[in-house]
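Lecture 7 notes: from sequence to structure.
We start with the chain below.
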Amino acid sequence: MIFLVGTRESNIKNGLILNEKCLKCNTQDTLHFSIYKRYTHVTLIPLFPVGKCVYIKCNHCGENFDYEDLSESAKLQLRNEKLDYSIWMFSGSIIITLFLIFTIHNYFEKKDEAGILIKNPTKGDVYNLKVKNGYYSNMRIDKVTRDSIYATLNDFNAYMPNEIDDLNKPENYSNRKVYYSRNDLIKLYQENEILKITRKK
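Predicted structure tokens for the same chain:
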């Protein structure tokens, strides 16, 4: 997926600068202004405003002027204009914030659930693990006794944590047997070597 980052402008107010004459044709009350809000966007989804632009044009002679060309009283009128900042310009930032909140909440919720399951291992549980050399894999609990658990390691490793669940297929578990005491298992979890526990409903 391609993400296009850039800036765009959106017109937020138009009007006349009152009691001012055109700098070219000297006609009273013909200076029309348009105020545009500039915002940053990602693939056309607005993130947040980053500034504003003012365009001035005489309705009588058609001449365009820069903000700097205006008199101090005209500039003061424009600075005092009440601008409505649409929440639409912050929509991307709101979406990103809500996504981060959901992700963090989901992470801690799963962490709390794993903290409960680790104290009561059950046959068939699948543990997502950190293994040596920075890889990730699974192990499946085969047997649970009062003091220990016996498990089979997955034959395959993943490079990223989000790929571990894809390895969890029955044919990927063969003869790589391991066992841990319950205390060792809890210690692995506390040291973040066990990332997730999946229990069949």
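Points to note: The chain has a mean pLDDT of 87. The longest helix spans residues 91-117.
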